[in-house]
TrEMBL record:
Residues 8-125 form the Response regulatory domain. Residues 163-349 form the CheB-type methylesterase domain. Gene3D superfamilies: 3.40.50.2300, Methylesterase CheB, C-terminal domain. Its main location: cytoplasm. It comes from the Bacteria. Belongs to the CheB family. It is found in: Cytoplasm. HAMAP family: CheB_chemtxs. Phosphorylated by CheA. Phosphorylation of the N-terminal regulatory domain activates the methylesterase activity. Its EC number is 3.1.1.61, 3.5.1.44. PANTHER family: PROTEIN-GLUTAMATE METHYLESTERASE/PROTEIN-GLUTAMINE GLUTAMINASE (PTHR42872), PROTEIN-GLUTAMATE METHYLESTERASE_PROTEIN-GLUTAMINE GLUTAMINASE (PTHR42872:SF6). This is Protein-glutamate methylesterase/protein-glutamine glutaminase.
Length: 356
């Protein structure tokens, strides 16, 4: 799509108030044209055919047809970038993660109270996510991966590596498209892989459900980190949503430090906040990776890791939903190689095993 052509958006939400507010917010940007709105999926289906939008915003909970069922149909029959509008509830978090697994590009949190002012407060974020979605790579829906109950028979089993210390550490950052990219990486990791610290741009209400989802798909133990927790091999750690996570050295091992400081690069948690202490504490004993995501968070931190001797890589453009963060790292010279998503886990293991 040419940069001079406005992104055509269809808004699907059962609330007339939300449809009006989203229309007002998105219409402020000259790069966006709201071509229509619909109160339910059946009306939306007809408008998709008639209006041919570039992006659709979709409420998670919809009348007449379940929002997830509608999304699955869209991604199977007419794949297009979709930004979910979801509530910050435990049920809403799980449903939103299912939507991302079905192919939604990103999501916007809908406040439980005072929706009008709440959405207005996130106007810049809503506009940015819709415009990023318009550039996203969307593929036809594939069969969702089942929770891991043993070896994944669809992929070659990674070698079992016998790490007995925390001398090797893998740090990964991701944003838009990252919930599924991280699942792909972690489900290929053996149970005794090096410790992994992760930062995914995700709000507070979603982090626990996200960690539990990743844990179901991985032989590693994936958990939402707590302050002061020891970082152990075979474990992967996510910061609680809405808080930063750092890595600190404590004698012969590392620990998680949960930080409620200000947003960095407009994000909290931020990838740079994770990568910089990894560079300082682990240096060349760490491996760094940036997966799909919007913006440039993590690029400078990954450069610092590279400068301390850490092997670094980014997800390649062809398999990224949004090649913002990986592309920024490449332009900065922070990444030493680009790797397709399906090969990242093995490459991380190879790089960690090669550390002297």
């Amino acid at each position: 799509m040419m940069s001079t052509t406005p992104c055509r958006v269809l808004i699907v939400d059962d609330s007339a108030v939300v449809r009006q507010i989203l229309t007002e917010i998105l219409s402020r940007d000259p790069g966006i044209e709201v071509v229509g709105s619909a109160a339910d999926p059946l009306l939306a289906r007809d408008k998709i055919k008639r209006l041919n939008p570039d992006v659709m915003t979709l409420d998670v909970e919809m009348p007449r047809m379940d929002g997830l069922a509608f999304l699955e149909n869209v991604m199977r029959l007419r794949p297009m970038p979709v930004v979910m509008i979801s509530s910050l509830t435990e049920r809403g978090a799980d449903t939103t993660l299912q939507a991302l697994a079905l192919g939604a590009v990103d999501f916007v949190s809908k406040p439980k109270l005072d929706v009008a002012s709440g959405l207005q407060a996130y106007a810049d974020e809503i506009i940015a996510k819709v415009k990023a979605a318009a550039k996203a790579r969307v593929r036809p829906l594939a069969r969702p991966s089942a929770p891991r109950t043993g070896l994944d028979t669809t992929l070659p089993a990674p070698p079992a590596l016998r790490f007995r210390t925390t001398d090797r550490l893998i740090a990964i950052g991701a944003s838009a498209g990252g919930t599924e990219a991280l699942r792909v990486v972690l489900e290929q990791m053996p149970a005794d892989a090096p410790a992994i610290v992760l930062t995914q741009h995700i709000p507070a209400g979603f982090s626990r459900a996200f960690a539990e989802r990743l844990d179901r798909h991985s032989a590693m133990a994936v958990r939402e980190a707590t302050d002061g927790e020891a970082i152990l091999p075979g474990h992967a750690y996510l910061p609680p949503g809405g808080q930063h996570m750092r890595v600190i050295r404590d004698g012969a091992r590392w620990r998680c430090r949960i930080d409620d400081g200000p947003a960095v690069n407009r994000h909290k948690p931020a990838v740079d906040v994770l990568f910089r202490p990894v560079a300082q504490s682990a240096g060349g004993n760490a491996v760094g990776a940036i997966l799909t995501g919007m913006g440039d968070d993590g690029a400078r931190g990954l450069l610092e890791m590279s400068q301390t001797g850490a092997p670094t890589l980014v997800q390649d453009e062809a398999t990224s939903v949004v090649w913002g963060m990986p592309g920024a790292a490449m332009r900065l010279g922070a990444a030493k190689e680009t790797v397709p998503l399906e090969r990242i886990a093995q490459r991380l293991l190879d790089l960690a095993a090669a550390i002297a």
